[in-house]
Design a protein that fits this description.
alpha/beta; Isopropylmalate Dehydrogenase; 2 domains; ten-stranded mixed sheet; globular
């Protein structure tokens, strides 16, 4: 029987409660699909600051390297907002991603038929949307040097190396081969030299994937097209800062960020997490939506562990629960037959996934 070691980082706010529901579902599906998961809990973010004084303890950094994958909840909250930048919860997450070598962020934007009316856009615009945003995660302007705030000016540096662009492009093309075989590379090559460099390298990489159609789009146009006609996209490939913005815009096509997962993958252990934040205003009330975290667990099974059937079972269970009218409070206004607590929704998905 296969055995997997999964790192668990619950984090702050609603993190612990949504991760608990994902574990519940993983346990249910592992029994029926014949594999065993052992969990190893670690600290990150505000919880780590409170316990150890730093947002990313050495025990966490060392622990994740011994795991097959990591499931993460959310970090941050107003309690830690006034700390120095390097001591804030978000610095711990950025540092962890960098140390893990997770250079590719996968952000699906999927509109469920059962929740098509939850989107702020017209149903005929978003029905059938299924986009994967592949964002470069550890390079670009967020990490470029030099950077500084001076008396009369401030500056950042946007830098990409050839190897950084090649490796993220390969991820996008390989994912496209498993989907609808279309990649749209988003840049600002009409203004930025680094984007010209990006586009040239992506065109080179595309030659190794003749079955995948490559197109290019400037980032401002891409933002408009995501709203105008999102179904034109299959896989969007883009840089760190552009991907940060576009993936959030794409996520709202579904109507709720409580629905969508993400993965940060690369050369080593992958990190799987919901796209939403720690929502400290509703923490501990039992009303958080766990679907994004459960979907993140499904992505982990699919991409990190190769347990495709188990992942399919979870995805089908989510669709069934939504089709039957089960909703958490954040999506309760859309064809709900029953409003569920966080724990109740986890129970329902676990039950369906185990069949």
């Amino acid at each position: 029987m296969k055995r997997y070691s999964i790192g668990i980082i619950k984090g702050d706010g609603i993190g612990p409660e949504i991760v608990d529901e994902a574990i519940k579902v993983l346990d249910a599906v592992s029994v029926t699909q014949g594999f065993i998961i052992s969990y190893h809990e670690m600290l990150l973010g505000g919880a780590a600051i409170d316990a150890t004084g730093v947002p990313m303890p050495d025990d966490t950094l060392n622990g994740v390297q011994k795991c097959d994958s990591v499931l993460f909840g959310a970090i941050g909250g107003p309690k830690w907002d006034n700390l120095e930048r390097h001591l804030r919860p978000e610095s711990g997450l950025l540092g962890l991603r960098k140390a893990m070598g997770t250079f590719a962020n996968l952000r699906p934007a999927l509109v469920y038929d059962e929740l098509v009316n939850a989107s702020s856009l017209k149903a005929d615009v978003v029905k059938g949307v299924d986009i994967m945003v592949v964002r470069e995660l550890t390079g670009g302007i967020y990490f470029g040097q030099p950077r500084a705030i001076e008396k009369d000016r401030a500056y950042n540096t946007m830098v990409y190396t050839r190897d950084e662009v090649i490796r993220i492009a390969k991820v996008a093309f390989e994912i496209a081969q498993k989907r609808n075989k279309r990649v749209c590379s988003v840049d600002k090559a009409n203004v930025l030299e680094v984007s010209q460099f990006w586009r040239e390298i992506v065109i080179e990489v595309a030659k190794d994937y003749p079955d995948v159609e490559l197109t290019h789009m400037y980032v401002d146009n891409a933002a408009m097209q995501l709203i105008r006609y999102p179904k034109q996209f299959d896989v969007i490939l883009t840089s760190n800062i552009f991907g940060d913005i576009l993936s959030d815009a794409a996520s709202m096509l579904s109507g709720s960020i409580g629905l969508l997962p993400s993965a940060s993958i690369g050369s080593g252990v992958g990190l799987y997490e919901p796209i939403h934040g720690s929502a400290p205003d509703i923490a501990g009330q039992g009303i958080a939506n766990p679907l994004a975290t459960i979907s993140s667990a499904s992505m982990m099974l699919r991409y990190a562990l190769g347990e495709v059937v188990a992942a399919d079972k979870i995805d089908e269970a989510i669709r069934r629960a939504l089709k039957e009218g089960y909703r958490t409070n954040d999506i309760g206004s859309y064809d709900a037959k029953e409003i569920c607590s966080c724990s109740d929704m986890g129970d329902i998905i676990a039950n369906y996934a185990s069949k």
